[in-house]
Amino acid sequence: MPAREDLGAPLTDYRRSHLERGTSYDATLDTNPFDAYMAKWEAHWLAQLVTRLHGEGIPRYLDFACGTGRVTQIVAPLARESIGIDISRSMLEVARAKCPGTRFIEVDLTRQSVDLGKFDVITSFRFFGNAQDALRRDALTALARLLRPGGHLIVNNHRNPLSGSALLQRLTGGSHGMDLTYFKFRRMLGEHDLALVKAQPVGFWLYRSAMQSSSAILDSGAPKERLFASRMYAPFAPDMILVARKT
Questions:
Q1: How large is the greatest C-alpha to C-alpha distance in the chain, in angstroms?
Q2: Burial class (CB in 10 A: 0-12, 13-18, 19+), 206
Q3: 182-190 vs 133-146: helix axis angle to the nearest 10?
Q4: pLDDT by residue (tens digit) across 145-193?
Q5: How far apart are CA 111 and CA 217, in angstroms?
Q6: Is the entire prediction scored with pTM above 0.85?
Q7: Which one of 1.10.340.30, 3.40.50.150, 3.40.50.2300, 3.30.450.20 gives the CATH number of domain 7-246?
Q8: Quick check: 166 and 4 in contact, CB under 8 A?
């Protein structure tokens, strides 16, 4: 679940990327203007989406690849029972301090079988955009198995190669190492009996990389986020939240 320091060549296996990053991950996210901007708006839209799905509270909630609990702390207060899982012990130490009411487990669900029961909502942020295809599919297989029929998987993709800034970078001879488009992600979800029901764009209006590094420009983003909040903009936004329903 890294920030934007991973925009170069993809890792051979994303599992190894953040095992010892617990003490530095949040600071890295906060000090990068665009990462902090995305985190702010992800939290804004995520709380609204979850409340609409479960206005009376989520019976059982799982945060997959929860890291330091950045997303867990948003959703867990809206759930009667919450569990976070990650393979990084250092990340989980930070998450436990943030979310004392959540049960955290150090486990790799793509390789280990753990009896966790079924969940009504599962989240996974800053994972799929960074992971390799084989790991993405293994994760979706595991998560689909843990969802109740009618349950929802809520994920994000903050590495969209079809965003305006990424396309401009390619046109000017740059390389970004991103491969997970909205269309590819939707297809992968469908392959695991997960039907896309909602797509929330984040940062669609940021069409140049220089805009993403300017705190002054990002601070003025609220009206634009609401203006470009329609699902139609998600395929071309640098970040998006996708909600898929287990069929």
A1: 50
A2: buried
A3: 50
A4: 999 999 999 999 999 999 999 998 888 877 778 999 999 999 999 999 9
A5: 43
A6: yes
A7: 3.40.50.150
A8: no
